[in-house]
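Input chain follows. Return structure tokens only.
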Amino acid sequence: MRRFTLEATDWLLAQDVKLLVLACNTATARALDAVRERSTVPVVGVVRPGAVAAASATRSGTVGVIATAGTVESGAYPSAIVEAAPGTHVAQLACPELVPMVEAGILEGRRAESVLRAYLEPLVEGNPGIDTLLLGCTHYPLLRTVIEAIVGRGVAVVDSAFTTALAVEDLLDALAARARPDHDPRHRVATTGSVDAFVGVASGLFGERLPSVEAARIEPAGAIP
């Protein structure tokens, strides 16, 4: 993960970007410091914005986190949440079925509800003080409607992707780096994998809003710090 993240970083920096977002919780947890050392532009990870939002949202002092196994194993979220709000209890749960489910386009219905209940009900019932649930993977917001229905109104659902977008907006303002009002923006989408496979998944999520997709040919990273 660390090496691949740095290879992707090198490719993105070669595109003359003005800011870099590690839009993956596992990559942020495992490689953020290395990316910042390598980057010539500001770098934003997704863990801290989500952690700060969760720490601010909880009233009971008990936060649930659902994430990939890699993110849970890193301990990044408990560390960041407790740093933001000392004394907070963090209950984590790895949910390995969710990313494949999202990428298969299963975002609602009986299957999505069954899989999510199997994860969420034991987490909430085993930690009765949970009043905030942090979605610690950028795939999970696509399941938010089902998640909120399962955990109920008494649990605030915090989206690390949304809070990161707000952090990026604030940083661009601080750097006076927003695009000019007369600038005509365009979106470039690139994948390091199969373009056809990517389009098959992404078009189901974004429909006609999906721009053309290009193949990114990344080179082996140099020395890994």
